[in-house]
Amino acid sequence: MEPGNGTQISEFLLLGLSQSVELQSLIFGLFLSMYLVTMFGNLLIILAVSSDSHLHTPMYFFLSNLSLVDICFTSTTVPKMLVNIQTQSKVITYEGCITQLYFYTIFAVLDNFILTVMAYDRFVAICHPLHYMVIMNSRLCGLLVLLSWIMSAMVSLLHSLMVLRLSFCSDLEISHFFCELNQVLQLACSDIFLNNIMIYFLTGLLGGGPLAGILYSYSKIVSCICGIPSAQGKYKAFSTCASHLSVVSLFYGTSLGVYLSSAATQNAHSSTTASVMYTVVTPMLNPFIYSLRNNDIKRALQRFFGR
What we know:
Helices cover 76% and strands 3% of the residues.
């Protein structure tokens, strides 16, 4: 790929979260701790679901997939940042940057799809309880997850191919801790009009579409819950949705709300802060949200460690 000065691109520079040498050790320790907690928490969810036959249901099948995606999502960005801090190097190769962008996009989109599928699962469970096991059979669950993976891979491949066609200028410093798509596009010397159109179109389609589906599902869920005569029945129905609703609010609140607002102001620091929220903090908190109020997960973990 030819940059504007006619030389071959071999690497980019990731400027990270801070240029302060004094903060590097603090950032390293903080993100290493967050990464280990994310890995441990999500692995526990996967182990609990896979080891307990009582949790072999559609809801926990999707939850274990969400945990797997969160592990992969965080692993595309944080390890490279930790290595750069430890080695005092800001370099990422051109191929490494494109690879990181590809996998980051896959798991970001996949997170979005899995949360949408989980909302549909809760909609069927509450609004059509008598037909739940017929509708949410193992074949449909597997197909929904497979389609989510295929669509995510296709979207990510499209973005990556659109970046590969660009030429870049001599200033190859990325004001971020990973190769985020918008940051990479800002370094291009060639026309990025088609790239921006593609971003806006796919963000509206794959961001707005699933979010609309989630909101529609919960509007029907709320309507069904309001029709339940007993207070205990209402609480039980709502409690099955509370964890998922919390995760959805956290994911969309950080990725869409904070990030898009910071992108609109072109503030690199606020954009980086927002990215930390939905690439690191949200995957770390998801296992706690699903396990603290979920007695099934607690019992499964107790049985697993009590063997």
